[in-house]
Amino acid sequence: MTSYARIVKHYGTPGQVADSELVTKFPDEWSSAHRLRGCAYISAHFKYNVDAFPAGLPEITAVIRGLKCYDPRTGLTVWTDNPALLLRAYSLHSLGGRLPPGSIDDDDVIVAANHCDTEVDYATWAQLTVGGDQLTVGGDELLI
Predict the structure, then answer these.
(1) Taking the CB of residue 90, how many other CB atoms lie within 10 A of it?
(2) How far apart are CA 105 and CA 113, in angstroms?
(3) 94, 41 Cβ separation under 8 angstroms
(4) N or C: which end of the chain has fewer CB within 10 A?
(5) How far is CA 47 from the centre of its chain?
């Protein structure tokens, strides 16, 4: 059976190497130095076949969740939409505030994170969340 489409996921891990297929197929544009460590990305590879793609190549869409953040309440590093945990992660990140780890008071982060997770008005959503291009405050969405 012939495969006409393949998606390769890269998670941006510290040891990530360059996509070998991109290095081989596009040697003038992509080299082994293009490791994209710290950046998640996908590469989509298609072998065109009029029978497999009668309407042309498909549109690629993806649902992407961002940076996994350390939660001092649980000791876990997971995806979250909690603004206090996102701000903590951004403040420490090399592309953000670049603060030294000891400069953040995790007790304050815990208080803020718990406040952000507080449900209001018997709703099923958190009081304050961040996601995509929207900020949700008590269920009211604001475009940012």
Answers:
(1) 15
(2) 12
(3) no
(4) N
(5) 28
Rounded to an integer, the average pLDDT of 123-133 is 57
Half-sphere exposure of 118 (CA within 13 A, CB side): 9
Sign of the alpha-carbon dihedral angle for 103, 104, 108, 112: positive
Which pLDDT belongs to residue 144? 39
Do 37 and 82 contact (CB within 8 A), yes or no?
no
- pLDDT tens-digit map of 91-104: 998 878 899 988 99
Written as six digits, the tokens of 37 are 């460590």
Domain range list for the chain: 1-64, 68-143
How far apart CA 71 and CA 110 sit, in angstroms, is 8
User: How many angstroms separate the CA atoms of 119 and 139, rounded?
Assistant: 10
- Let me know if 89 is exposed, middle or buried by CB neighbors in 10 A (0-12, 13-18, 19+): buried
